UniProtKB/TrEMBL annotation:
Annotated metabolic or biological route of this protein: Amino-acid biosynthesis; L-proline biosynthesis; L-glutamate 5-semialdehyde from L-glutamate: step 1/2
Primary residence: cytoplasm
Gene: proB
PUA domain ranges (all copies): 285-368
UniProt-recorded name of the protein: Glutamate 5-kinase
Subcellular localization: Cytoplasm
Residues reported in the UniProt entry to bind substrate: 60, 145, 157
Length: 382
């Protein structure tokens, strides 16, 4: 498909992105995996990291790699079990492919949707990914298909990428596939189909323009990509759809130039997240903080540390949304707590460096991380 007529526009500003790479970009014609298109995408990741940005990679291709290893054998089990076996076989060569294309260490992170629906596992996954990014490691995320029951379904990695984008507080979701943009008709059948460069807001009419999977290698099509963009938009994250088969398109991304479709968000990401934190149901308890902590939270981009906590009321669990109040029980903020109520009681007034010795473990220096905090005193956006 020619990219000559594709619209070009600037990517939104971003510091952290999730890049999803589809199976069609990794599967070799004769079976197995190829670096033919992955090389340019890996180059974009490396260039982004050199520029001080962070990229999390969500990569398909494990089933295709596993199928190549068993190309001479029949798969006797049920279809789902066979796909799970192929995914288990193919994970190693898929990770090896990406490691061969970058000098940075590559880490494999296997997730299921159940991991991301469970608040405790959600927080653990996020903490792991954040730590990997701080270590300048390339996280390669995939479905944990080996143990999943219903995750091997149409477009699961597109949707997983959107969930991961929200998980790591990404500024941008990038979806690379063998399709260069969203079109107003199916370009495989309609020569008059025109690309759509900018989608200000997803509507039923826009989603209806999308079709299914174009080949037998991938598990999704444009419809699942738009579904992923819809999930990302709900978290305030725009989505860029582009062809990973065009090296000039991939190279242009390094200069923040998109040749494809940008699915925008209504409002901005900060507003969407802050609104949710302010209005979502809170747990059965609150944390009282001293005047210094009140000033730190309301005066800037500070996290809530143990030293500023003076009291804990009620019961809540790790990952619950809790109220944060001052000494007079006036609301100051709301946030997702990294520790349960019993743990916070033990940590109150202590230094962050004492967490591991007091509890025997640590989920991080912050009781509530600034990314999970919404100030409500004076309706500040700090």
């Amino acid at each position: 498909m020619s990219i000559v007529s594709l619209p070009e526009h600037a990517l939104p500003p971003w510091r952290r992105a999730v890049l999803k790479v589809g199976s069609n970009l990794l599967a070799a014609d004769g079976g197995g995996l190829t670096s033919r298109y992955a090389q340019a995408l890996a180059g974009f990741i490396d260039a982004s990291q050199r520029a001080g940005r962070e990229v999390v990679l969500v990569s398909s291709g494990a089933v295709a790699a596993g199928r190549a290893l068993l190309r001479t054998r029949a798969l006797p089990g049920p279809e789902l079990a066979a796909k799970q076996a192929l995914a288990a076989l193919g994970q190693a060569p898929m990770i090896a492919l990406w490691q061969s294309l970058t000098e940075r260490p590559v880490a494999q992170v296997l997730l299921t949707h159940d991991d991301l629906r469970n608040r405790r596992r959600y927080l653990n996954a996020r903490a792991t990914l954040r730590e990997l990014l701080m270590l300048r490691v390339l996280p390669v995320v995939n479905e944990n298909d080996t143990v999943a029951v219903d995750e091997l379904k149409l477009g699961d990695n597109d949707n997983l990428a959107a969930i991961v984008a929200a998980l790591v507080d990404a500024d941008l979701l990038l979806i690379a596939s063998d399709v260069d943009a969203l079109y107003n008709a199916d370009p495989r059948h309609d020569p008059a189909a025109q690309p759509i460069g900018h989608v200000p807001q997803l509507t039923a009419q826009i989603i209806a323009m999308a079709g299914g999977s174009g080949t037998g290698v991938g598990t999704g099509g444009m419809r699942t990509k738009l579904q992923a963009a819809e999930k990302a938009a709900a978290a305030g994250i725009p989505t860029a759809l582009f062809s990973g088969r065009e090296p000039t398109t991939v190279k242009a991304l390094e200069a923040d130039c998109l040749r494809g479709t940008l699915v925008d968000v209504a409002g901005n990401r900060l507003q969407a997240r802050k609104y949710w934190l302010r209005h979502a149901p809170a747990g059965n308890g609150h944390v009282s903080i001293d005047a210094g902590a009140v000033r730190a939270l309301t005066g800037g981009r500070a996290s809530l540390l143990p030293g500023g906590i003076v009291d804990v009321a009620g019961e809540f669990h790790r990952g619950d949304l809790v109220e944060i109040v001052d000494a007079n029980d006036r609301p100051v903020a709301r946030g997702l707590c990294q520790y349960g109520a019993a743990e916070v009681r033990r940590l109150a007034g202590r230094h962050s460096r004492d967490i591991a010795s007091l509890l025997g473990y640590s989920y991080g220096a912050e009781v509530v991380h600034r990314d999970d905090l919404a100030i409500i005193a004076g309706e500040s956006e700090a």
